Amino acid sequence: MRLTEMDEYWMRTALEKAEEAFQAGEVPVGAVLVESSGRHFADRNRTAETGMPTSHAEHLVITAAAEDREDWRLEGCVLYSTLEPCLMCAGLAVLSRIPRIVYGAPDKRFGAFGSVTDILKMPGLNHYPEVLGGCYEDESARLLKKFFRLGREKKTGKKG
Fold this sequence. Notes:
Elements: H1 5-23, E1 30-34, E2 40-44, H2 47-50, H3 57-69, E3 78-83, H4 87-95, E4 100-105, E5 130-132, H5 137-156
Parallel strand pairs: 3-4, 4-5
Antiparallel strand pairs: 1-2, 1-3
């Protein structure tokens, strides 16, 4: 599977949302869910803002699209995320039947599409999306590293 111009366009939109999360003091992850018509839902991590562990960017855009459609099945959509989805978000994407997922940086702590675990290797699922990682990986990783570096500096009072 190869990246398309549309993949790059929507990943840049997801990166803009990740930057918004960074500015708001949230872990800088952005996501966009795009319908086949081009209609889309974009959001950023909001866990600190809402106090809810489910307020991951991917969860928010999937929920918004399902509510808007009044249908939990999101066939014909593509999910873009700046970070490899965690098990919760990967499971939600599979359950909602999203056929294609494109993400930026791998998540070595919680990634569920190969970094820590691979939900696609679970036997018996009734849906297996096509997944492509590494789209704008450097930009996504750079923003995450900056966020966590600044957080450590605030805690310790030391730079670097």
